[in-house]
Write a structure and sequence with these properties.
An eight-stranded mixed beta sheet has the order 1-2-4-3-5-8-6-7, sandwiched between helices. The protein has a four-stranded mixed beta sheet with strand order 15-12-11-17, covered by helices on one side. The chain has a three-stranded antiparallel beta sheet with strand order 14-13-16, with no helix packed on it. With 449 residues, it is an alpha/beta fold. The chain is built from nine helices and 17 strands. The chain is globular. Helix 4 links the parallel strand 3 and strand 4. It folds into two domains: 324 residues, Aminopeptidase (3-Layer(aba) Sandwich); 84 residues, Immunoglobulins (Immunoglobulin-like). The termini are far apart. The structure holds zinc ion.
Length: 449
């Protein structure tokens, strides 16, 4: 960990409500995003690839090879992050014994490694965000713990993003906590993420959004097609955990595209894209790639909003392949194919989005929609009591739209009438904004009146 200019951080907590205004450009988020360095991302990836294999079942008694050496290095890195000047980060280890299962022949000790940036707002002490990359890797055979499996893009790139976010956000004055985590056992069945999600839930931590950064460094697709101007955000449309009442409401509203996970993904796109030039987030309307999964799904299974960010073009000669040459084809996820400039752009966007969300006031609650079969949509809600709320934002998009298309800033209140806007042709949501433009996740209607 090297030089880092620490910026003057003024606390936004306790700021009083102001007249509504358009969100100004956020210089603090821009400063932090500007400190993301591709050279540091590259070093992290090279270091992790240097452990030969990081298969979850690989050796633990070596200082230089295997999952044990990798986890020890990560633990040392998290301590370094906590020692940075001005750092508020607290290192943690989430250690557990995974029982025998389909991809784990016998009970095995595993550890998630991370740092936590604690909440500075006592009324939000239990609210948190999570960003995770998995530090384990795999070879061609998912049970092969001995062959080389450098896992540079999958997923040393995600771990590098997570550590870099923690590095530049180390002194950020967040209202909610942020967990920056390198998870274990992803390739053996999302074991680390599942353990962490269950543990946070059991400890009463309310995760308002979890992001899995998995494969965020490849720009050479099959057939040597290059793509570095887009990145994909995957999220579930229909929650995997849904009560009968929630299902009824979803059916009544047509809410298949408005799950909490989808709103989280929209938020990451909306706020993230301000912080890197030339990187569009593609809001993918599916929970993951076809027939495949990742750590975000383990959080979804606990009912937690979660999304996955991944490069737009994956390269199947790299992923899940023992490094080798066959004829004129090179296989293997080696560090030379990691594109640090691309990963840096993705990291900058997520730093910006996480900063906004982590400083935002609490979201409005109990949003109610009425006005069906009339020309005007009426929205009402329980106004946030958070004293930092300076304005509310009414979002709407046409019913064939993917992202929010219009935002209307209104003073703090508890209802509004959208004259001439029919309920059937639009979707609506309400968010809370502070005077610095930090915005909550938008709340969609949970009742029709
Ligand atoms: Zn992966």
């Amino acid at each position: 960990m090297r030089r880092l200019v620490f910026f003057l951080l003024t606390t936004v907590l306790g700021a009083q409500a102001q007249a509504p205004a358009q969100a100004p450009p956020n210089t603090l988020a821009r400063d932090m995003a500007g400190h993301v360095e591709s050279a540091r991302l590259r070093r992290t990836v090279e270091r992790l690839a240097g452990f030969g294999t990081r298969h979850t079942l690989s050796i633990t008694n070596s200082e230089s090879r295997g999952i044990g050496a990798a986890s020890k290095w990560l633990i040392a890195e998290t301590r370094n992050l906590a020692m940075l000047p001005g750092s508020r980060l607290i290192p943690f280890e989430d250690r557990f014994t995974a029982p025998a299962g389909p991809r784990v022949p016998k009970p095995t000790e595993m550890v998630n490694v991370g740092v936590m940036l604690p909440s500075l707002d006592p009324s939000r002490a239990k609210d948190a965000l999570v960003v995770a990359g998995h530090y384990d890797s795999r070879a061609t055979d998912v049970m092969d713990a001995d062959s080389d499996a450098p896992g540079s893009v999958d997923d040393a790139s995600g771990v590098a993003l997570v550590l870099e976010m923690a590095y530049v956000m180390a002194a950020d004055h967040t209202a909610v906590s942020i967990y920056f985590v390198a998870t274990v056992g992803e390739e053996q069945g999302l074991l680390g993420a599942a353990h962490l999600a269950a543990r946070l839930k059991a400890e009463g931590v309310n995760v308002i959004g979890m992001l899995a950064a998995d494969c965020v460094g490849n720009t050479w697709g099959p057939g040597n097609v290059r793509e570095s101007s887009t990145v994909r955000l995957f999220s579930e449309g229909v929650p995997s955990q849904e009560t009968e009442a929630q299902k009824k409401l979803r059916e009544a509203l047509g809410g298949e595209n408005d799950s909490p996970s989808r709103e989280f993904a929209r938020y990451l796109k909306r706020f993230g894209e301000r912080y890197a030039d030339g990187l569009e987030c593609l809001l993918m309307l599916r929970r993951d790639r076809v027939g495949r999964g990742g750590d975000h799904l383990a959080f979804n299974r606990e009912g937690i909003p979660a999304a996955r960010i991944s490069e737009t073009l994956e390269n199947y000669d790299r992923q899940h392949q023992v490094p080798r040459v066959e004829g004129n084809r090179t296989y293997g996820d080696t560090p030379g194919f990691f594109d640090p400039g691309y990963c840096a752009k993705i990291t900058r966007e997520m730093v910006g989005a996480f900063h906004h969300l982590a400083l935002a006031p609490e979201a409005p609650r109990n949003v109610r929609l009425s006005g069906a079969a009339t020309p005007d949509a009426r929205l009402s809600w329980t106004s946030p009591t958070d004293p930092r709320t300076a304005a509310l934002v009414i979002y709407r998009r046409r019913a064939d739209g993917v992202v929010w298309q219009q935002d209307m800033v209104i003073p703090v209140s508890d209802s509004t009438v959208l004259t001439g806007v029919g309920t059937d042709n639009f979707f609506f949501a309400v968010a809370a904004r502070d005077r610095d433009g930090n915005e909550s996740l938008p709340s969609v209607p949970t009742r029709i009146e």
